[in-house]
Design brief:
By secondary structure, the protein is α/β, with parallel strands linked by helices. The chain folds into two domains: 53 residues; 198 residues, no CATH class. Helices cover 38% and strands 34% of the residues. It is built from five helices and eleven strands. The chain has a six-stranded parallel sheet with strand order 1-3-5-7-9-11, with helices on one face. Strands 2-4-6-8-10 form a five-stranded parallel sheet, with no helix packed on it. Helix 4 runs antiparallel to helix 5. The chain is globular.
Length: 258
């Protein structure tokens, strides 16, 4: 403290000539010290708030299986992930702000007499935003899956990017799949894609794995896992907490072991 007082005294071009002068210097030094401590405290608070904001962004995932609201409105810029598993619902995702990037990810594993009905809407009311929907399903026995997906882009939603894809694997001739993508586009400066495929496991891939010593059921399980892995890869690139990803992955892969 004495060293700081001496430096402060020299800064103001003087010596300790009197008690009052010393007292004034001490008061000035304390004032500057208080300001410095206040600035450091503010810096720490801002850093903490920024870190919390980043963490909220990293974990900005909405599980549609647990939320009761099927109408989701995204009105703040940022990255979002909507996830669901074996969900029968009609989720409507409405985007009302620019600079929103949302992934809509779904997985279905159907066995025996399972029946799933899904109807999704990606509604872009404002431009300069992105939505990417990917739904993957694996169906056995007499399972059924009915899907309709709509991408709706309003006239003022220019510079929008919207994608919709549904991919299904069927493991029985008794499975029934209906997948119908729809577009309703009023803007003229957008990027939009949609598509649907349904088929069986590649015979070539299955044969390749079997020639490497795998049993048929083991090879199929590996191919099933690789098929749904794309969903989890997107989650990883979206910076979602890995514990959340592993939790969902474990639950889903457990059903593939049966």
């Amino acid at each position: 403290m004495l060293k700081n007082l001496y430096c402060l005294t020299r800064q103001f071009g003087g010596e300790f000539t009197s008690f009052n002068a010393s007292q004034r210097l001490v008061s000035l030094w304390l004032k500057q010290t208080d300001e410095l401590l206040k600035q450091r405290a503010q810096t720490r608070v801002f850093a903490l708030l920024f870190r919390q904001k980043v963490e909220r962004t990293m974990n900005n995932i909405i599980n549609l299986n647990t939320t009761k609201n099927r109408k989701i409105t995204l009105d703040k810029p940022g990255k979002y992930t909507l996830f669901f598993f074996n969900l029968c619902s009609q989720p409507e995702i409405t985007i009302t702000s620019e600079n929103i990037d949302v992934n809509i990810l779904g997985i279905y594993i159907g066995r025996k007499n399972d029946s799933f009905y899904l109807n999704t809407t990606q509604h872009h009311k404002v431009g300069k935003s992105k939505s990417n929907l990917l739904i993957k399903g694996i169906f056995f026995d007499d399972a059924k899956f009915y899907y309709e997906g709509l991408i709706k882009i309003d006239k003022n939603a220019q510079k929008t990017q919207a994608h919709q894809k549904n991919q299904n694997i069927i493991e029985s001739p008794d499975c029934h799949i209906e997948s119908k993508p729809f577009l309703e586009i009023k803007a003229n400066d957008i990027i939009c894609t949609h598509g649907s495929t349904t088929g069986q496991i590649s015979a070539d891939q299955l044969h390749y794995l079997q020639t490497r010593g795998m049993k048929k059921n083991q090879a199929k399980k590996l191919l099933f896992e690789g098929f749904v892995q794309e969903i989890f890869d997107i989650m990883n690139t979206s910076q979602i907490d890995k514990k959340i990803i592993e939790k969902y992955k474990k639950e889903i892969l457990t059903l593939l072991i049966k």
